[in-house]
Design brief:
alpha+beta, 2 helices, 5 strands
């Protein structure tokens, strides 16, 4: 697993285990689109569609602050 930073926001990528994470209900999942937008995953169809399109799926971590 890995992380992705988009416009200063950190996402923990769970693409490979997205279905298991979604089924557990512990975290909200987001599809991270190529245009740097994201959309909340609401069902397995959206996970399958993201996987077919080669898009990342992640969990929110938070804003990156550098001091």
């Amino acid at each position: 697993m890995r992380a992705k930073v988009v416009q200063g926001f950190v996402w923990f990528l769970v693409t490979d285990i997205a279905k298991e994470v979604y089924q557990s209900g512990l975290f909200s999942l987001y599809v991270l689109h190529d245009d740097d937008s994201e959309s909340l995953v609401e069902d397995f169809f959206e996970i399958n569609q993201a996987l077919e399109n080669g898009e990342d799926i992640g969990i929110e971590v938070g804003h990156l602050t550098i001091k």
